[in-house]
Design goal:
The protein has helices spanning about 5-15, 20-25, 25-45, 50-60, 125-130, and strands at about 20, 70, 75, 80-85, 90, 95, 100-105, 110, 115, 120, 130-135, 140, 145, 150, 155-160, 165, 170, 180, 185-190. The chain is an alpha/beta fold. The strands form four sheets. Strands 2-5-8-13-16-18-19 form a seven-stranded mixed sheet, with no helix packed on it. It has a five-stranded parallel sheet with strand order 3-6-9-14-17. The longest helix is centred in the N-terminal third of the chain and has 19 residues, at about 25-45.
């Protein structure tokens, strides 16, 4: 990537609102295409082809722990903004839209059909139609269990030792040691 592309990614990671990146920046478009191809390759591999799958994921993601599992299908936008810790498990149909950084701690389990989103589009129709978007990071602490069918929205931090109940939409930070559930997710008890 050249310096102008890095500048765009730095600006996006910093939360600056930007207009339609892929159309105006061939390097961003190429990075999206590279990631889409790698996800396609990964999702076509046999689950038993562990070495090849692990090698591909280590080349796709920003960083990984020594031990991790990501089941197919898996999708992400860039991959290099995703950092997973030790003993991570991402179950079937995990989608991570990683225009900003996604940091996932150690001993995290994410159930099937979950989505982590860092990108948001403008609420006003005209800027949205022109592609105005903003990215905010997502952070998930250590020892977190995210049950199935959960959506985590931009800018959210999920504290260590927490549980997110099935079908939840996480719109704001989750304190450490909490069980949250619902749409929007709310604390239902402390662990």
């Amino acid at each position: 990537m050249n310096s102008s592309t890095l500048d765009i990614f730095d600006r996006l990671r910093a939360g600056e609102a930007l207009y339609g990146l892929a159309a105006d920046c061939p390097e961003v478009s190429a990075a999206l295409g590279r990631c889409a191809d790698l996800c396609f390759d990964l999702n076509g591999m046999r689950p038993s082809d562990c070495e090849r799958r692990e090698s591909l994921l280590r080349g796709l993601l920003g960083s990984t722990g020594e031990r991790f599992t990501i089941n197919s299908p898996f999708r992400c936008d860039f991959g290099f903004n995703i950092h997973i810790g030790e003993n991570f498990v991402g179950n079937f149909n995990l989608t991570i839209l990683d225009e900003a950084e996604v940091k996932i701690g150690d001993n995290v389990m994410i159930g099937p059909n979950c989505t982590i989103i860092t990108i948001n589009h403008d609420l006003q129709p005209e800027p949205r139609a022109k592609g105005l978007m903003q990215a905010l990071p997502v952070t998930i602490g250590d020892n977190v269990w995210i049950a199935s069918d959960v959506v985590i929205l931009p800018g959210v931090t999920i504290g260590s030792d927490s549980v997110v109940g099935a079908g939840s939409v996480v719109t704001r930070d989750v304190p450490p040691g909490a069980v949250v559930a619902g749409n929007p997710a709310k604390v239902i008890k402390k662990i």
